[in-house]
Amino acid sequence: MTVRAPAPRPASAAWRRPSRARSRGVTLLELLIVLSIMAIVAAIAMPMFSGGVSTGELKGAARQVAAGLRLARSEALATRKETRVVIDLERRTFRAEPELREHALPREIELKLFTAQSDLVSDRLGAIRFFPDGGSNGGRVTLAVGERKYDVDVDWLSGRVAILD
Q1: Which CATH superfamily is domain 55-164 in?
Q2: pTM of the model
């Protein structure tokens, strides 16, 4: 009686059948890692899509305030009389004198006014004054929403109005 050794399998047979580890799918650890990455991305992205004031609206409001200040300066130069821009911090409005129309800003914007003590009427109402020579008492209006802000700066000597990021 002769014992025969089994014939060796060809090497290519191993490649035809998938191993059990490859056909199982994803592990619980891999699933948890992917879910935690998705949660982090969602936490970062959600505030960008939430309601409120967009960066464009905030910049537009800063431009609107700067335009009102520039209008008051040109009015002071043209008429050779002092003019003011009156800013109501509580109602979030401003008015360039002698114009009677008030310009409203979005309610979500936080306003701060830095100006001469003599032009502060109360905690919520103040003004920036322009003189007939184009100069000003100087000041700054800060428009902010959360971390984002723009400063509208008025130079006291030249009356130049600039928007600072």
Answers
A1: minor pseudopilin epsh domain (3.55.40.10)
A2: 0.69
